[in-house]
Amino acid sequence: MATFTIAWGVSDTDPSGQHTVTVTSAAEVDAALDRLRVDGPWPVDVYQDSWHPGEPTPPYGLQLVWGHPERAAAAWLGPHPGYAVDPALSPWPEPVDHDQDAAEPHRTQLTPATARSLVRDHIRTGHRPTGATWITPR
Question: What is the pTM of this model?
Fold first, then answer.
């Protein structure tokens, strides 16, 4: 399995400028997301390999809003970009605030369990996950 980076927040000590952890398995994804849930919500980037300032931006990956007890958001940054939803869920009634901004209600139609599954799928395949409906922004 390839190595992926999970990045969040701001760090003066990591070359990426964010707090990071590398993961190669579902168990490591679970441990990282469980840790982040305590302090969240956070915008969380998940991308293959590592990244440092001055390098080209990672070509694609997932971006989550993670840490809300009942909802999450996921966006795919790569070929066929979009955001993930579970059509069976209604939008959350208010934006989900995080340390940089807020996720709009229509983008928070995911449970934390579904968002976690999307991350696991991404690190297993290296591609856009298939466990949600993807909406292409206009």
Answer: 0.89
